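Q: Could you predict the 3D structure of Thyrotropin-releasing hormone receptor?
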Amino acid sequence: MANISVPGNLTKGVPESYPLDYRIVATVLHSLIFILGVVGNVCVVIVVRRTPSMRTPTYFYLVSLAIADLVVLVSALPEAVYSYNIYKRQWSFGRFGCSFWVFANFLGINVSSTSILCFTVERYIGICKPLLAQKMCTISRARKIIMAIWLFGVIYSSPWLFLTQTSPYPDHMHMEYCHYRLTRKEYVYFYLADIVLFYVLPLLASITLYVRIAVALRISILHMPGKVTITRSYSPASSNSNLARPLTVRSPQAWRKHNYRNTDEKRAVVQVRKTFGKQTPQNRFHERLSDCINEKVRHSEKE
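A: Sure. Here are the predicted structure tokens for Thyrotropin-releasing hormone receptor:
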């Protein structure tokens, strides 16, 4: 945040102001970032809330991330835009505003990092451990994890409510500035803990999980048979067992030579030909990736 500083870095005399060109550019850019960020994250929350099919653990973690980003945007950007148009280091939101702004900023950043890590773990389980995902990746469990994330974030960030204060501006007693209670050297341990817990460890964990996901998909592609598996969705309202039976379609070169078992399979093959008739690199990639994931699921079910 622009107008929060460590004690002892203000000089006496006439307070300085930001140059006019700097104020204009910074105000416009920060305002655009604020508007786009708020609109985008609010849209994510609204869409997930109004779409029943999107109420899954994955989207729940994305909603948690969107809310955390909103906390960061609201706690940082409005104050920054306001600070560009007053004196440097001047604070106008009182003692409570000084503490709450710092607390909310750290809370949003820490919860954002943790939500991304939980989302990554959920994707890893869903792709590499599909059978385990049926037990662990549930909406109720996701809600409990999200509540634990926010509770931990509030508890961990709460010391900042007591580690900030306001003091009179030098030679201008009617003005205040917001600063930390301790010196810069005394805050080293707090910053190191933040970097390790919410940056280094989540980054290393995410890299490890995504590498394992890539390796698992690569192995599945290498051992995948040369055919496309199409699984039609099962409707609980229907008792027709054919709706849950996968259709096996051979490679595009063998489509015309294949003897179809029934009319439904022929229609499915026609639809596949329409989709993958033009074998562009994008179509081949999505086709192979879909087959890879299906093969991984079948292999896990056999185990």
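Q: Anything worth pointing out?
A: Strands lie at 4-5, 164-169, 172-180, 227-230, 247-250.
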